Amino acid sequence: MSEQVRLDKWLWAARFYKTRSLAAQAIGGGHVQLNGGRPKPSRPIKPG
Predict the structure, then answer these.
(1) pLDDT digits (tens, 9 = 90+) for 7-29
(2) Domain span at residue 30?
(3) CA-CA distances (angstroms) from residue 33 to 1, 13, 38?
(4) Strand 5-6 relative to strand 44-45: parallel, antiparallel, unpaired?
(5) Read out DSSP for 23-47?
């Protein structure tokens, strides 16, 4: 079983951003793409 986690939370936990808020701002600002598109910070992601 794989657990899903919010995109902004994963970026923060992986230390790409110092705070989850900064991760959400980067996602909302278009600095993060997922599968060629602009995701929402709350987008669930999973390993694989």
Answers:
(1) 999 999 999 999 999 999 999 99
(2) 5-45
(3) 25, 18, 5
(4) antiparallel
(5) HHHHHHTT---BTTB---TT-EE--
